Amino acid sequence: MTQKNDDLTANYVGAFDGRLSFGKRPALLIVDFVMAYLDPASPLYAGVEDALASNERLLAAARAAGIPVFFTNVVYQADGADGGLFYNKIPSLRVFLEGSPLGAFPPSLQPVDGERVISKQFASAFFGTSLAETLSEEGIDTLLITGLSTSGCVRATALDALQSGFAPFVVREACGDRHPDPHEANLFDLQAKYAEVVSEQEACALISAKAEL
Fold first, then answer.
1. Which residue, 13, 44, 95, 149, shows the most beta carbons closer than 10 Å to its own?
2. Radius of gyration of the chain from its Cα atoms, rounded to whole angstroms
3. CA–CA separation, 93 vs 44, rounded Å?
4. CA of 39: how far to CAs of 33, 44, 45, 155, 200, in Å?
5. What is the 3-state secondary structure (H, E, C) of the chain?
6. Using CA atoms, how far apart are residues 31 and 149, in angstroms rounded to an integer?
7. Any idea which residues carry the catalytic annotation?
């Protein structure tokens, strides 16, 4: 018999109570925070200005603590052929054709020297990229994951991080979606099964603790 929505949390108790430990060598991974989601003229505009501000604060904290920072973006060749069925399924991905201004990072989230940009064609930052190998080479064992969208590329990246052996810590306020319902539903499910969902304050405390070592 299906549980009532009011009993959702209670329904998960005893089945999904595990916790992941924050590792010794974390990195901040900012997923696809680009102008396509910030420009009201874009078909992907998501009204995620609050999440942008959260990312700005986390990025500053990570840089101050000397924690590695990775960015991802989405880039397709002129005909979109390298996007496969994903590109066919979501026609609005055309905003990420190579050279599009909508694929650019916003002024306040620009990578600096030494910070890696991972360009991808699919939802997960791990699929078809060198991210896992790069993280392993640098001894990184934990990812603070932020970005867009919660139900799409953030979720896919967190799942693949777990499956690749990197503990995913998803920062609630630093992720965003087109609507609060999929945002909250996916954060709930990520916490239950695939990641630790933490607040911005908790993430900053974890970053500060590493800076003090």
1. 149
2. 17
3. 8
4. 12, 8, 6, 23, 24
5. CCCCHHHHHHHHCCCCCCCCCCCCCEEEEEECCCHHHCCCCCCCCCCCHHHHHHHHHHHHHHHHHCCCEEEEEECECCCCHHHHHHHHHCHHHHHHECCCHHHCCCHHHCCCCCCEEEEECCCCCCCCCCHHHHHHHCCCCEEEEEEECHHHHHHHHHHHHHHCCCEEEEEEEEEECCCHHHHHHHHHHHHHHCCEEECHHHHHHHHHHHHCC
6. 8
7. 153
Q: What are the tens digits of pLDDT across the range 18-35?
A: 789 999 999 999 999 999
Q: How far apart are CA 89 and CA 77, in angstroms?
A: 17
pTM listed for this prediction: 0.93
The span from the CA of 48 to the CA of 173, in Å, is: 10
**pLDDT tens-digit readout, 35-64:** 999 999 999 999 999 999 999 999 999 999
Q: What are the φ and ψ backbone dihedral angles of 17, each rounded to 5 degrees?
A: -110, 5
| Domains located in the chain, CATH noted | 24-211 (3.40.50.850)
